[in-house]
Amino acid sequence: DGQALGVVACAESDVLSWRYQHDQSDTPATVEARTYDPDTATDTRVSAAVSGEDGGSKVTLRESFRDPALAQTAATSYATSAQRNSRTLSMLLPGRPAMAAETPLALTGFHTDIDGRWIVTTATHRIDQGGYLTEVEAAPETAAARPLPSVSIG
Question: 53, 26 in Cβ contact below 8 A?
Answer without folding.
Answer: no
